[in-house]
Amino acid sequence: MSQFSYSFTLRILESLPRVVNPGPNISNSALTEPPSATLPPLGLMIPYEKSPFDRLLERQENEGVGNRHEFDYVAVTAHSPLHRVPSQRTPAWIITHMGIEGEGKVSDWAKLEPGMGVRLFDEGLGERNYGFEKVWLFGIIGRPYGREPGYHIFWLEPHLFTITRHPIPVRIPAALIAIPNHLLPEQYYFSQIHECTLGQRLVAGSSHLEPPLRPWESNWAWKHPEARKIDQWRMGLRTTLEEDWSHHHEKD
Questions:
Q1: What is d(CA 82, CA 216) in angstroms, rounded to the nearest whole number?
Q2: Residue 12 domain-assigned?
Q3: Integer angstrom CA distances of residue 31 from 28, 34, 35, 36
Q4: How many domains does the chain contain in total?
Q5: What is the per-residue pLDDT for 248?
Q6: How far is the C-alpha of 177 from the C-alpha of 185, rounded, in Å?
Q7: CA–CA separation, 216 vs 124, rounded Å?
Q8: What is the per-residue DSSP string for 198-223?
Q9: Domain boundaries, position 179
Q10: Is residue 79 part of a domain?
């Protein structure tokens, strides 16, 4: 053993024994007792920021809305009946697919059914006329209306309907939505099929019937009926046009 190790051992042996105070007697349960201060719910730590649609839904005098917020409604892309072509005699929203561009992918297994809350957006119309018309419809799928080739049509209980870039509620008593057969569970299929009133088309390569072409798709020279006013609105000359256009579509 080295000189350093030997002298170190002697020092340990020469130390006098002493009693160490163990401190207060603390039970194991006291050591594992949860702290008296707990974290608040996550919703209180990070307050939910309401969207413009959340605020508009709150203001609607409709008990059916309840505590629903914007994203409590299933996102669906559709063709609104605004500016519909002559072949579409039934003024229904024609659903094209589940989900809305920019909100993430929806499962391929997702279906629509009565009693479900949906929010419909007309993406194609929103891309026209400088984005003047941003048409949204929130509501609950209701009772059956009829069945046509490729589609089942249901009544929709409207909760909120807006048609302009800056959403202004538009009063309507009811609405119709046409759901493609492949987006409706078979248990809700109707047995009787009526004639085509939606203007549906058979398109090569598509496994199901497609909605009619939009007016600007079938006629390159098509113009919005208020095109001149919309040009003025874009330049800031008609600041009340969105409100005027919304009131024009109200129905009691």
A1: 12
A2: no
A3: 5, 9, 10, 13
A4: 1
A5: 93
A6: 16
A7: 10
A8: S--B--TT-SS-BPPPPHHHH-TT--
A9: 51-248
A10: yes
d(CA 144, CA 101): 28
* String of DSSP letters for the chain: --HHHHHHHHHHHHSPP-PPP--S---HHHHHPPPS--PPPHHHHSPPPPPHHHHHHHHS--TTTTT--GGGSEEEEEE-STT--TT--S--EEEEEES-TTS-PPPTT----TT-EEEEE-HHHHTSGGG----EEEEEEEEEEEEETTEEEEEEEEEEEE-SSS------S-EEEEEEGGGS-GGG--S------S--B--TT-SS-BPPPPHHHH-TT---TTHHHHHHHHTTS-TTHHHHHHHHT---
Report pLDDT digits (tens) over 225-243.
999 999 999 999 999 999 9
To the nearest whole number, what is the mean pLDDT of the chain? 86
The string of pLDDT tens digits covering residues 43-94 is: 555 666 889 999 999 998 888 898 899 999 999 999 999 999 999 999 999 9
Quick check: is 110 in a domain?
A: yes
Distance (Å, whole) CA 29 – CA 43: 32
The one-digit pLDDT tens for each residue of the chain (252 residues) are 444 444 444 344 444 555 445 555 544 444 444 555 565 665 555 666 889 999 999 998 888 898 899 999 999 999 999 999 999 999 999 999 999 998 988 888 899 999 999 999 999 999 999 999 999 999 999 999 999 999 999 999 999 999 999 999 999 999 999 999 999 999 999 999 999 999 999 999 999 999 999 999 999 999 999 999 999 999 999 999 999 999 999 987
